[in-house]
C-alpha cells in the first residue's frame, strides 16, 4: 500500500493516461448521491476540495497537474480525482511517522529527477560533477527512506504473526472445550449445517414448477 500511494502521487501524469467512459458525469449534483463508476461512488465536491487543498499544500506539482487537467479533460480529471481520493484515505490512516517518511521520500524523488535533468543539460564538467554529488546524496536519502518504510512493514507483519501464534496457542489449550461445544451445537441441529430449511406455512406461495416438455 505504501508503494502504491507514493507511485500515484509521484506519477499522476502516467496514472491519468487511461481515459474513462465518455458518458461519465463531470461533477456530482450537490443534492443527489454522487455518480458511481465501476460500482464505486465518485468523490463529492466537498471531498474534491479537501483533496485539492491537501495537494496544494503537500504536492504542489500534482496540484498544478490536476488543475490543468480539470480544464483540458474533465472526464480524465474525474477519474484521476476518484482514484487519488481513495489513496488519500489510505494515507490519512497511516501512522504520522510513516506519513512523514512518505512525504520526505516524495520530495527526494522529485529532487533526484530534477538533478538528473540538470546533469544531462549541464555543459561545464565541474558543474556536472557537483550535480552528480548532489544526485548521489539525494538517491541515498531515497534509499534510506525506502528502508525505513520496509522496516515498518516488516514490524507490522511480525506483530501480526505474533498475534496469530498467540491465538493458535490459546485455541490449542482450549481444545477439549471447543470440541465439546461443537458437539453440543451439532446435536441441537435438525439438519446438516448450511442446508436450506424446509418451507414453512405462511412463507408465501411455492415456487412455480419447471415447464414440462
What does this 3D model show about the protein?
There is one protein chain. Helices cover 69% and strands 2% of the residues. A hairpin with a 2-residue loop joins strand 1 and strand 2. It has a two-stranded antiparallel sheet. It has helices at residues 2-10, 12-15, 45-58, 60-72, 74-93, 96-121, 125-173, 175-187, and strands at 36-37, 40-41. It contains eight helices and two strands; from the N terminus they run H-H-E-E-H-H-H-H-H-H. It is mostly helical and 213 residues long. Helix 4 (60-72) runs antiparallel to helix 5 (74-93). It has two domains: 1-24 and 36-93; 95-187.
The overall pLDDT average reads 78
Our estimate of the beta-strand percent is: under 5%
The sequence of SSEs as H and E is: HHEEHHHHHH
Number of strands: 2
Strand order of the largest sheet: 1-2
Q: Major β-sheet, in short? A: 2 strands, antiparallel
Tally of discrete structural domains: 2
Count helical runs.
Answer: 8
Principal-axis shape? elongated
Give the N-terminus to C-terminus distance in angstroms. 56 Å
| Helix-strand category | mainly alpha
The helical percent reads 55-70%
| Residue runs with pLDDT of under 50 for 5 or more positions | 1-35
Computed Rg: 28 Å
Amino acid at each position: 500500500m505504501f508503494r502504491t500511494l507514493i507511485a500515484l502521487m509521484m506519477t499522476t501524469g502516467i496514472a491519468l493516461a487511461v481515459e474513462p467512459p465518455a458518458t461519465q458525469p463531470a461533477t456530482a449534483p450537490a443534492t443527489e448521491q454522487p455518480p458511481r463508476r465501476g460500482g464505486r461512488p465518485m468523490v463529492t465536491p466537498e471531498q474534491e476540495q479537501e483533496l485539492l487543498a491537501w495537494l496544494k499544500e503537500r504536492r504542489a506539482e500534482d496540484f498544478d497537474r490536476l488543475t490543468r487537467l480539470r480544464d483540458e479533460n474533465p472526464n480524465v480529471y474525474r477519474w484521476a480525482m476518484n482514484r487519488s481520493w481513495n489513496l488519500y484515505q489510505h494515507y490519512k490512516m497511516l501512522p504520522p511517522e510513516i506519513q512523514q517518511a512518505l512525504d520526505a521520500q516524495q520530495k527526494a524523488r522529485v529532487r533526484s529527477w530534477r538533478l538528473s535533468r540538470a546533469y544531462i543539460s549541464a555543459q561545464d564538467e565541474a558543474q556536472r560533477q557537483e550535480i552528480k554529488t548532489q544526485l548521489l546524496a539525494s538517491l541515498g536519502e531515497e534509499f534510506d527512506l525506502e528502508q525505513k518504510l520496509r522496516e515498518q512493514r516488516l514490524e507490522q507483519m511480525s506483530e501480526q504473526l505474533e498475534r496469530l501464534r498467540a491465538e493458535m496457542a490459546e485455541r490449542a489449550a482450549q481444545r477439549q472445550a471447543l470440541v465439546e461445544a461443537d458437539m453440543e451445537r451439532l446435536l441441537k441441529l435438525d439438519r446438516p449445517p448450511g442446508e436450506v430449511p424446509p418451507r414453512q406455512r405462511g412463507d408465501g406461495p411455492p415456487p412455480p414448477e419447471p415447464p414440462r416438455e
